[in-house]
């Protein structure tokens, strides 16, 4: 009887410990600043661009050790607080539209054009990918910059069509070697 009681207590402890550990997710907070800006005009002769600040705010973003605060979470929290209209991407991983600027891309025969909200943390682009995956820490500065640009297309509209059955050999005039009596 005594052995059975000890085994029951040990099994009960083994079942309770993981449950208590899962309930103990620690909350973490990141105090960050966030800025939304757009170019004020064309770059100067040195290529420097000046920006108009559309929005600036300091806030505290809450997360847990398992789900830390992200760039997207900070942006949504700040925009919601001031009732700014915004839209997320179709997959819900980044800001696609806010302050009258909506992401777009278009092409012509040679060039692809793009417009989007580029987010940086402390002046660096994220290595984590999407804004919803980029973790923020206490003291970080998040800057959303309206970015427009263009890139030469890697594909082409010009389609080369060839007929695999078409004879592509060029007739060559026959030439004859000069006749000599010498043998090499």
What does this molecule look like?
This protein is α+β, with helices and mostly antiparallel strands. The chain is 18% helix and 35% strand. It is built from 2 helices and 9 strands; from the N terminus they run αββαβββββββ. The strands form 2 sheets. Strands 1, 2, 6, 7, 8 and 9 form a 6-stranded mixed β-sheet that branches. A 3-stranded antiparallel β-sheet has the order 3-4-5, with helices on one face. A hairpin with a 6-residue loop joins β3 (86-88) and β4. The protein is flat. The protein starts with a helix and ends in a 32-residue tail after the last strand. 14% of the residues are buried.
Q: What is the chain-wise order of helices and strands?
A: HEEHEEEEEEE
Outline the low-pLDDT stretches: none
Computed structural class: alpha+beta
Into which percent range does the helicity of residues fall?
A: 10-25%
Oligomer status: single chain
Q: Could you give the distance between the termini?
A: 111 Å
| Largest sheet entry | 6 strands, mixed
Over all CA atoms, what is the radius of gyration?
Answer: 32 Å
Assess the beta-strand content as a share of residues: 35-45%
Count of discrete alpha- or pi-helical segments spanning 4 or more residues: 2
Quick structural overview:
The protein has helices spanning 2-23, 71-81; strands at 27-39, 51-64, 86-88, 95-98, 101-102, 104-107, 111-121, 124-125, 141-152. The protein is an alpha+beta fold.
């Amino acid at each position: 009887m005594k052995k059975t009681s000890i085994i029951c207590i040990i099994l009960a402890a083994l079942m309770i410990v993981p449950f208590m550990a899962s309930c103990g997710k620690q909350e973490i907070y990141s105090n960050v600043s966030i800025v939304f800006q757009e170019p004020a005009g064309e770059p100067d002769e040195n290529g420097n661009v000046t920006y108009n600040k559309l929005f600036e705010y300091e806030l505290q973003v809450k997360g847990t050790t398992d789900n830390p605060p992200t760039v997207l979470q900070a942006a949504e929290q700040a925009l919601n607080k001031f009732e700014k209209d915004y839209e997320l991407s179709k997959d819900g991983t980044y800001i696609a539209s806010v302050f009258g600027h909506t992401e777009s891309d278009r092409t012509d025969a040679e060039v692809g054009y793009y417009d989007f909200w580029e987010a940086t943390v402390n002046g660096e682009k994220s290595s984590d990918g999407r804004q919803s995956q980029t973790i923020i820490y206490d003291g970080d500065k998040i800057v959303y910059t309206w970015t427009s640009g263009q890139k030469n297309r890697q594909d082409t509209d010009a389609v080369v069509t060839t007929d695999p059955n078409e004879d592509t050999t060029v007739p060559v005039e026959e030439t004859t070697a000069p006749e000599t009596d010498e043998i090499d």
